[in-house]
Amino acid sequence: MSGTARYDLPEADDFTRPYWDAAAEGRLLLRRCGDCGRAHHYPREFCPYCWAGEDRVTWETASGRATLYTWSVIHRNDLPPFGTRVPYTAAVVDLAEGPRMMTEVVACEAADLRIGMPLTVTFREAADGVCVAVFRPGQGQSSSRTQEPSAVRR
Description:
Elements: H1 17-24, E1 29-33, E2 39-40, E3 57-61, E4 65-74, E5 88-95, E6 100-105, E7 118-127, E8 130-137, E9 152-153
Antiparallel strand pairs: 1-2, 1-3, 4-5, 4-7, 5-6, 7-8, 7-9
C-alpha cells in the first residue's frame, strides 16, 4: 500500500506513546484521575470529569473486559484499508473500569451480537509494530465463526 494514505493508523505523539507501546505488547491502557478516581478513554492529559491536571492523572492497565453497548455492521467503506475488510462490526463497548470505547468486534457473526454481551480485548496489528485494540466474545460466548482474521493477536 505504499503511496496510499492509511486511515487506520494512529498519529502517536510523546503523550500517547505509552498507550501505543502497551497495545503493541497486548495491553490496553486507560488514564485514571488521582483526585476523583475515575478512569477515562481516550487518553487525555487532564481528567475530563474534574479537570485535574496531568500531574494527577496516570496510566493503568485495563482488565481487558467489556460489554457491548451498541454496534453497526459496515458493508461499505472507501477509505483504505477498510474497504478490504468489509463487512466489519464497528462498536461501542463499556469497559469494566467504566469508560466507553469505540472499537471493532471480531470473531463474531453479526447475528450473534447482543447488547450487554461480555467481550474481551485482543489486538490487531495494523502495521509493523502498530497494534489496535479490538474486542471478541468473552468467556462463555460462542460464535458461528470459528476463526479470527489472521492479523488479530490473541
